[in-house]
Amino acid sequence: xxxETLNGIVLRTTxxxxxxxxxxxxxxxxxxxxxxxxxxxxxxxxxxxxxxQFCYGEMVTHERDGKLILSAxxxxxxxxxxxxxxxxxxxxxRIVMLAERVASRDISNDQFFLLVxxxxxxxxxxxNDPRDIELCFxxxxxxxxxxxxxxxxxxxCGRSVRGQRMIRFSKTHGGSLCDNCTGASHTVSALSLExxxxxxxxxxxxxxxxxxxxxxxxxxxxxxxxxxxxVFEYPIKR
Length: 238
Ligand SMILES: [Zn+2]
Description:
Layout lengths: L3 E13 L3 E8 L3 E7 L18 E9 L2 E11 L8 H17 L7 H16 L4 H15 L21 E5 L4 E3 L8 E4 H12 L12 H18 L7
Parallel strand pairs: 3-5
Antiparallel strand pairs: 1-2, 1-4, 2-3, 4-5, 6-7, 6-8
Helix pairs in contact: 1-2, 1-3, 2-3, 3-4, 3-5, 4-5
The protein binds zinc ion.
């Protein structure tokens, strides 16, 4: 089979045999792919540098028996500084786990790829709280995947919910509810919903601008993970 060049971010690695590793890689060209990196754990392996979690690079692959094999790879960005703090590592790990859950095999999605790339970049090099990048990532992920919730009016009856300080939200209906309608899973401040709305609209290159007040961060942490967990069928233990 001919060689194929793919640009990708390593979302997860699994060691097998003595010196091999399976890489789950989100690629620009083909969405999620699984690649065998044979011998990459040997000290002098040419694919060792690329074959670790969060690494972004260019891979040359070939297919054998229906499986993708890594022939060569060059690192474009290792995002090494993610490993310098526990908070950065936790947020980055949550981003790649959710990305792997949501990614489609053999379907490329440029917006989604850039979101993962920028999410990791801002966690590695940004100055804001990694948890804010993580929450912005989830808000934008919901929007990119077609789960933008209805927030300005009641998702059931259409009545405006503007002007209310606290707003009820339903993850099953995908939006806010007025006081007359039932089925709310959360009650959050209008301020938090406004932050949610703004994060969804933000260009992923501007994620570094997100600075959430503590109470908004705490509310959105519950709301976004619960809503994303529901729509992506991804229960997250926190
Ligand atoms: Zn209503």
